[in-house]
Amino acid sequence: MKFQQATLKLKLGLVALGLALGLSQQSAWAAGTLSGTNIDNKATLSFSAGGAPQTPIESSPSGNSTPGTGNGTVTTFKVDNKVNLTVIESNGTFTAVVPGQPKAVTTFTVTNNGNTVQDFGISATNDSGTVFTQADTYNTSSCSAFVESGATADYQVAQDTAIFIDELAPDATKTVYAVCDMPATPTTTPNQAAVRMTATTNAGGTAGTQGAPLTASTGPNGTNTVEIVFADPSTTANSTGTDPGQIASDGQAFALDAYRLVPAVLNVTKTMATICDPVNGTSNPKNIPGGYVQYAITVANTGTVDTQLTQLLDVLPTGLSFDPKLISGTGSPAATACSASGTSLSTTGFGAVTGTGTGGGYTAPGVTGQATTNGATASGSNITINYATLAGSGLSGWNGTLAAGNYITVYFNVIIQ
C-alpha cells in the first residue's frame, strides 16, 4: 500500500509540473515554446519499506536505483521547429492604375506563426485569379517584392529595398510590397491584373543574410535534435479572392491583390479676367490697348486615380505680350498702377495654388503668397509649365502628382498691345 501511495504522489507531481510548464510557455508565446528549448524533467520517488521511510530515489533516462539527491539525471528533449506563416492582403480593395504606370504598389503582411526566428523569401508574380469580383484580363509588365524598412510609412523607393524578410521573430509581422509596372496596351475597362505575393520559409539565425529554404524532416524524431515540421494549414477560398485557398504543410503562404485599370479623368479650364486698364484702373476695366488680362489655367483630377502631370504649353496670340511682374493693377493713378510700374505679385510672372476640389483657391488678381519660384516660364509668346518642377509658396507638398479629387491652378498676366 505504501508503494501505491508513492506512485500516486509521483503521478500527481508530474501532472502538476507538466501543466505549469505548458501554461508558462503558452502565456509567453502564442506560437508555443521556442524551438531548440531543452525540456528537462526529473521525478523523485518517496517511499517506505517495512513501515520506515526510505531515502528518495530520483529518476534517470536509463533507470536509477541509487537513493539520494543528485544520483538521478534529467530526462531531456528539444522542442522542434514548428513552421507556420500567413500572408494577408492589406489594401482591402484593388489598386487603381492607368496604362503605362510605373511602380504601382499593393501591400501585404507576412506573419510568423511558428516557434522559431525565420527568414522569409518573398516574390511578386502575375496570377490568373479572380480578385474583388473582377477576372484577370492582363499581366503586369514586371513585378518586384520589397520589405518595409520602418523608416517611413508606406512604400519608399529609396528606403524599402530589402528583398527578403530577415530574422522575423515568432508572432511578429512584416509589411511587404508588390511593386509592378503596368503595360501601355490595356486601354479599355474593365481590365484587371491579379498579382500574387508568396512568402517561403527560410532558415534564420544569421542577420543580414538570407537563409536557405527549409525542408521538412521526414526521419524519426530525435530527442536531442531540432526537427522541422511544416504546420501551415490549408484554407478555404475567401469571398474576395485574396485567399484562393492554401495548400497545407508546404512551408509557404500567399495572397492575391489586383491592379484595376481606371482611366485618368482630367478637366482643363482656362479662364480670363480683366485686371485693369490705363484709363479706368481696376474700376470696371475694359479690354483696351495697355490693359492687363489675367489667364488662369486649372487642371482638376475628377477621376479616381492619381495622375502625374508633365507639361502644359500655351502660345499667346498676336496682340498680347507676357507681363513678367504679374502686376495687381491696384493703386492710383490708373495710368501708373496699370503699367510696368504697378505693384508686382511675383518676380517670375506666375502664381500657382493647389488644393482639394476642382478649384477655388484662386481669385484674380492673385496674391504674393502664391508666387511661383520655379517650373513656369515665358519665352516670347510661348508659355511653358513643367509640373514636375513647379514650385512656390502656394504649392506646399506638390511633387508633380495630382491626386484624385484635387486641382492645381497656374495664372499669369498678358498685356493688350
Task: Name its key features.
DUF11 domain-containing protein, Immunoglobulin-like, 417 residues, DUF11_rpt, 29 strands, mainly beta, signal, single chain, 7% helix, five-stranded antiparallel β-sheet, five-stranded mixed β-sheet
CATH topology of the largest domain: Immunoglobulin-like
The CATH homologous superfamily of the largest domain is termed: Immunoglobulins
Q: How far from one another are the termini?
A: 123 Å
What is the architecture of the largest domain at the second tier of CATH? Sandwich
Report helical residue fraction. under 10%
Question: What spatial form do the alpha-carbon principal axes imply?
Answer: elongated
Structural class: mainly beta
Kindly estimate the percentage of residues that lie in beta strands according to DSSP.
35-45%
Structural Rg: 36 Å
Let me know the number of strands.
Answer: 29
Describe this structure in words.
- By secondary structure, the chain is mainly β.
- It has 3 domains: 2-78, no CATH class; 82-261, Immunoglobulin-like; 266-416, Immunoglobulin-like (Sandwich), CATH 2.60.40.
- The chain is built from 2 helices and 29 strands.
- It has helices spanning 2-28, 334-337; strands at residues 38-41, 44-45, 48-49, 52-53, 57-58, 75-78, 81-83, 85-89, 95-97, 104-112, 118-127, 142-147, 164-168, 173-181, 192-203, 228-230, 252-261, 266-276, 292-301, 307-308, 311-315, 320-322, 350-356, 372-374, 376-379, 382-386, 391-392, 401-402, 406-416.
- The longest helix is centred in the first third of the chain and has 27 residues, at 2-28.
- The protein is elongated and about 130 Å long.
